[in-house]
Amino acid sequence: MTLTAGIDVGSTYTKGVIVDESGRVLSRDIRPTGFRLGEVARRAFDSCLAAAGLTSADVQYVVTTGIGRHLVDFKDVAVTDLTASARGARLLFPLTHTVLDVGGQTMKASRLDEAGKVRSFRLNDKCAAGTGAFLEKTARYMGYKTEEIGPLLQTSKTPVPISGVCAVFAESEVINHLSIGTPPADIMRGAIESLTDRSVQLMKRVKAEPEFTLTGGILRFPLMADAVRRQLGCEVNVPAGEMVQFVAALGAAILAQRRLVQLRDESSAESAARAVEATS
Fold first, then answer.
1. What's 212's domain CATH number?
2. Are 19 and 135 found together in one domain?
3. Model confidence band, residue 164 (pLDDT cutoffs 50, 70, 90)
4. Which helix (DSSP H) or strand (DSSP E) does residue 52 occupy?
């Protein structure tokens, strides 16, 4: 059995997965990134090994991605998060042509070609107001934990507009709404709607084509995907459960499987060439 690992060292969370040659996930781990990126990557990897009952010698190739991908000393190769997310999205939804990834500190939209390679991409350019961190900060300001955002959103009746294009200005709007007695649920819903507006505009800038696949921790909240569906006027793919946070790590592990196949093919070709030379 051929086992590979993908480690996504993101700005907010680090994710790790181990897969076999069929792409089946054997184990996974997620934890806050913190400021020691190389160490947290190692801990995520070790946790994946322990969960699958493996040792590091059992994993034949490791690919890293994310902001801290170059700081992982046990990697075999590093790839961009755009490339890893594209590969992970295509594995989960083979007809994916556009990927929207809403991360803690960045939002990225990419359009893929028929082979699953990134043809064009855009990043959010409107400060942290266009990222998941703004939603988490808004929740904390109102006295809620991140895990309480979902239940809070379900109680919203009338979302209020949050129009600030900068996190500082958007936060001022939140403070103003609270001061006039606006329910926190409606403020939170307004923040989601604002984030959706930015995400759809980003997708339009890459000339997005269906199928659309949405990834990132914020997509744990169904309201975000529902809002994107309404604005696009069509269905979107969302990985089930927590897997929505592991798409890039999964893609990195799948790329590791492909790299092993390439290395074996190259080795076989070299061996065949040497055999021909020896008999000539």
1. 3.30.420.40
2. no
3. low
4. helix 37-52
The burial of 243, by beta-carbon neighbours within 10 Å (0-12 exposed, 13-18 middle, 19 or more buried), is given as middle
Reduced to 3 states (helix: H, G, I; strand: E, B; else coil), residue 177 is helix
Residue 256 pLDDT level (bands cut at 50, 70, 90): very high
Q: Based on the fold, state whether residues 253 and 176 are members of the same structural domain.
A: no
Specify whether the CB–CB gap between 214 and 48 falls below 8 A.
Answer: no
- Alpha-carbon distance of 96 to 141, in angstroms, equals 37
pLDDT at 126 over 70: no
Distances (CA, A) of 20 to 41, 61, 136, 253: 20, 11, 35, 9
Q: How many domains does the chain have?
A: 2
- The alpha carbon of 113 is separated from its chain's Cα centroid by a whole number of angstroms, namely 19
Tokens at 278, concatenated: 């020896």
pLDDT tens-digit readout, 86-105: 999 999 999 999 999 988 77
Domain coverage including residue 9: 4-86+245-279
Contact 43, 31 (CB under 8 A): yes
- Residue 106's closest CA among 126, 84, 136, 79? 126
For the ranges 60-64, 126-130, 161-165, the maximum mean pLDDT occurs at: 60-64
User: Alpha-carbon distance 53 to 50, whole Å?
Assistant: 5
pLDDT in tens, 226-252: 889 988 999 999 999 899 999 999 999
For residues 227 and 258, membership in a common domain is answered with no
Residues 134 and 159 in one domain: yes
> In DSSP terms, which residues pair with 65 in a beta bridge?
8
Residues 6+ apart with CB under 8 A from 52: 18, 26, 27
Residues 47 and 160 in one domain: no
- Residue 142 confidence (pLDDT): 87
pTM above 0.85, yes or no: yes
Q: What angle do CA 72, 136, 246 make, to 5 degrees?
A: 40
